[in-house]
Design the sequence.
């Protein structure tokens, strides 16, 4: 047995030399160290095993809580990207993932609305283009037949119809071109000194024959003297004409009243009709590009005659004038459009 010896010498209080001897067994020391190391290794292994188990459980939780919903959303994105716009993600919680799923579904709903609007627009633009072109073709064929029969007195009537169809087609094309200018930022204003009352009176007079055909009363009411202001007269007339024309178009009985008044900082034109009104769910989209009121609704037999661009263009024109258009409407109670133009 190996012995490790150690000694220590010291002097006592009485002056004697004292020596202390200590013997250590190296075998016992090694055994004690081995035992301590084995105990430490066992504890470390237990701790490592617990950490591994906790890590696996945490991974499973993260996979279930985060990776699973993310995979579901990725799959939903692939489905919608492939054209399945009706696909939705079930919202099962109110945490961040649930909010993200709800936002994703809202985005999908909007995409579906836009796709429906696109389909309706394609169908509508085909109808809007085909109708005047077909009318022109029929009138030209009839003119040819009349010329062959030498019935020249009936030709001017057909020429008048061709002119009407051509104007309708040109209006549609002009609207598309204006939208293109708006989106490219090339729609410019010719700002001049204007009188809003004169523009409104001109617009009202232009629709009196149309209102008379429908047995409607249309009148202009000026609350007070309206001072001159600044704006593009042609563009502002376009806005007023569009709004007043829609009021006459969607009013089957009663009246259309146009009120002009001055307010602090503004000049206002209110167009009130007794028409069919507009549901709240359609008001939010009414100023969108190519949006048209549901033509299948009762009281909207002529809604497909429009392009769905008039109010979109009007809203942009007023925003360019630092103004705005507001709408109040209820089904069966009519509508009130108010145009706000900054005063001088």
Sequence:
């Amino acid at each position: 047995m190996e012995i490790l010896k150690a000694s220590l010498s010291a002097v006592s209080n009485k002056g004697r030399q004292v020596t202390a001897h200590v013997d250590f067994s190296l075998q016992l020391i090694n055994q004690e160290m081995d035992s301590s190391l084995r105990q430490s290794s066992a504890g470390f292994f237990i701790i490592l095993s617990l950490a591994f188990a906790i890590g696996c459980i945490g991974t499973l939780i993260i996979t279930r809580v985060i990776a699973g919903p993310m995979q579901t959303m990725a799959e939903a994105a692939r489905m919608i990207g492939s054209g399945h716009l009706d696909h939705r993600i079930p919202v099962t919680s109110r945490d961040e993932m649930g909010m993200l799923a709800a936002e994703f579904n809202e985005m999908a709903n909007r995409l579906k609305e836009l796709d429906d609007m696109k389909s309706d627009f394609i169908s509508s633009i085909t109808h809007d283009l085909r109708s005047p072109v077909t009318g022109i073709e029929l009138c030209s064929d009839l003119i040819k037949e009349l010329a062959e029969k030498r019935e020249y007195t009936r030709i001017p009537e057909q020429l008048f119809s061709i002119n009407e169809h051509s104007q309708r087609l040109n209006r549609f094309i002009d609207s598309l071109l204006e939208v293109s200018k708006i989106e490219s930022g090339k729609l410019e204003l010719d700002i001049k000194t204007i009188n809003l009352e004169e523009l409104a009176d001109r617009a009202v007079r232009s629709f009196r024959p149309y209102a008379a055909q429908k047995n409607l009363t249309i009148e202009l009411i000026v609350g007070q003297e309206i001072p001159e202001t600044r704006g593009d007269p042609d563009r502002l007339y376009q806005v007023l004409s569009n709004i007043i024309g829609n009021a006459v178009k969607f009013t089957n009985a009663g009246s259309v009243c146009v009120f002009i008044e001055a307010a602090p900082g503004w000049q206002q034109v209110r167009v009130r009709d007794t028409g069919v009104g507009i549901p709240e769910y359609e008001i939010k989209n009414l100023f969108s590009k190519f949006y048209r009121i549901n033509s299948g609704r009762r009281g909207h037999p002529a809604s497909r005659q429009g392009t769905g661009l008039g109010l979109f263009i009007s809203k942009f024109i007023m925003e360019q004038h630092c103004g705005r258009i507001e709408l109040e409407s209820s089904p069966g109670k009519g509508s009130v459009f108010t145009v706000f133009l900054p005063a001088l």
Observations:
- The chain has a mean pLDDT of 79.
- DSSP finds seven helices and nine strands in the chain.
- The first helix runs from residue 26 to 81.
- Strands lie at 3-11, 17-25, 192-194, 217-222, 229-231, 255-263, 266-273, 324-330, 334-342.
